[in-house]
Every structure is written in C-alpha cells, then in structure tokens.
Amino acid sequence: MSVQAGSGSARMNDEASPDSGQRGEQKDQKDYDDKDHPHSRWPLIALGAGVLVVAIGGLIFWLATKDQETTDDAYTDGRAVVVSPKVGGYVTRLAVTDNQFVHAGDLLVQIEQRDYEASRDQAAGQVVAVAAQLDQARIALDKARTSFPAQMKQAEGQLLEAQGRLYQAERENQRQSRIDRAATTQQNIDSASAGLRIAQGQVEEARAQVAQAALVEQNLAQSTAQVKQLEGQLMQQQAMLDQAELNLGYTRVVAPHDGWVTRRNVENGTFLQPGTAIMAIVEPEMWVTANFKENELDRMRPNQRVKIRIDTHPDLKLEGHVDSIQSGSGARFSAFPPENATGNFVKIVQRVPVKIVIDRGLPRDTPLALGLSVEPTVYFK
Q1: What is the pTM of this model?
Q2: What domains sit in the chain, N to C, each tagged with a CATH number?
Q3: What does the alpha-carbon distance between residue 215 and residue 244 come to, in Å, rounded to a whole number?
Q4: Three-state SS across 221-237?
C-alpha cells in the first residue's frame, strides 16, 4: 500500500510540474526535426568538404609547380641585320620583295655602275704610268751602279794626264827661262809661260772633276731614293685602283646571310646615300628572351629544361633550355638607368633577361616573327 501510494504521488507531481511538460515537448520537437529534416546538416558538411578539396588542390598544385618558374613577360628574339649601301647612286635594279627568303650572297639592290667604272679605269691608267716610271728609274739605277764608279776612274785618269802636261809645261818654262836670250825668242818664252798656266788650270779642273766623281755612294743613294719614291707612288696608285674596284663591287648590294627580307624601303630609281638603311635581314636562328623577376632566379641555372608556348601558334610544342642569364637587369642597361642615390628610392622588383634556346618542335615551314608573345616554363629538375 505504501509503494502504490508513493507511485501515485510521483505521478501526480509529474503531471502537476510545468517544467517537466516543457522538456517533454522540446524533446518531442527535436526528435521530429531529426526524423523529418535530415538535410539541415549538409551545409556544414559541404563547407568542410570544400575546404578539404581546396587544401588538397593547393597541395597538389604546390607540389607540381615548386620546381618550375614561368612568366608571360617573354618574346621571340633573333638577329635582324640592317642592310645599308657603302656607295651612293641611283638604284637600277631591285631584286627582292617584302618577306622574301634570300641566301647569303644573293643580289638585293643594283646601283648605277658607270661612274665607278670610269673611276676604276682612271686609277688603272695611273698605275700603268707610275709603273713605267718605276721601270725607267730601276734601269737608271742599274746603269748608275756601273757609270758612277767608271766616271770616278775617268776623272782620276784625266787628273793624271793633266798633271803630266803640267810637268812638261814646267820643264819647258824652266828651259826657256835659263837659256840665253840670243838663243830663243820672246815668243817662245811667252808660249812656255802660257803653257805652264794652262797646264796648271787643267790640273785644277781635273781635281774638281775627281772630287765630283768621288760622290759615288751619294749618287747611288739618290738614284735608289728615286726608285723608292716611285715604288711608293705605285703602291698609292694601286691602293686607289683597289678602292675603285671595291667601290665598283659595292654597287652590288648582296645579302650578308640567309634570312627573310623585312622593312624594305627602297624602290627602282631611288637615289641612295652611303649608310642609308634600305632593309633588314632576319636570320633563321631564333631564341626566346624571358624577363624573369629577380626573386625567381634563385634556382635558375644554364642548361635547365624549358617548355615554350607561343600565343600565335598554341598547337606548337616547343622545348628548349636555358642558355644564359644576363649580367644585369633590364633597367640597368636602359637608355636612362635609374639613380637610386637621389633620396627618393622606391623599391621595385627588377626583371632580368634570360636567353632560352629552342631545341626542338619548331617546324621548318613555320618561321616565327620576332617579338611574338611567349610563355616559357623553366623546370629546375
């Protein structure tokens, strides 16, 4: 009886308590929401899954790109040689057109030749004239080597002969002076005295001729100098002839190497001045110049593999390697390099040109223009 009474009292207390009724209603409502609205948890699940996917994707991307660097500040580069004439004149023939492929030595432009042919012929005539003078001087030098010593011997012989006549004249003059006046005449005395003076004069004259003929070495040196002078003139005239031949050859403006004709600005009849740019020849050899940021060069080294994508030819799969890294940023070699010591310094990330050589993937029938946009990717491993 006591147990039942207690149980009844507890039930009466539960029915009478308002809190217990409210808790029961909340429990029933929660059970209802869990059973009839299970999708209420999906936003949190989706958010967590999205964060996980992004984290995994970021990890995969980092692992895939941590050993490579790429840039869109790159372009195709090559050698474009400007063609200029070395002589002036009117264009008589234009042998090429725009974007034509030419080989080294092919004629590009022909300049009027007649003026240069006349100069060449005039120079050739001067060479012939001076060469004839030189031959004559050489013959005279050969003769002088014999004639000058012979003249010396001749002068010495004439001196001896004059001295002999002087001795004879002195003896005759002494005889005429010693004999009795009755045995001779005044005419004989005068004749002997005059003969003595004449003989003395002939001796002096012979001595002067000997002194003049004694300059054998000096006379030979003079003849030799004449030969050398004419040899120099001949060399000068020959150089003028060679220059005239060169100028005549320069009237044919030819391609310096294989390549494509670009930037042609010459026509038939144009008067050209020496040094005027008339066209450019772009060589077939080509590479890529990529301007990487300075903080991207830490692991970049020559010979590293590079994949290249060109905007104009997206289907081309080009491969190459890093050839070299320029020893200075692009700003350092610009026309007006920055001066960072002025006190108004603002740090700017610099870019350094990197030369990338194309190894494979470029077809021969698809020439690339210079300056095309390129996206190279350098692989460090």
Answers
A1: 0.64
A2: 69-112+261-379 (2.40.30.170), 114-248 (no CATH)
A3: 44
A4: HHHHHHHHHHHHHHHHH
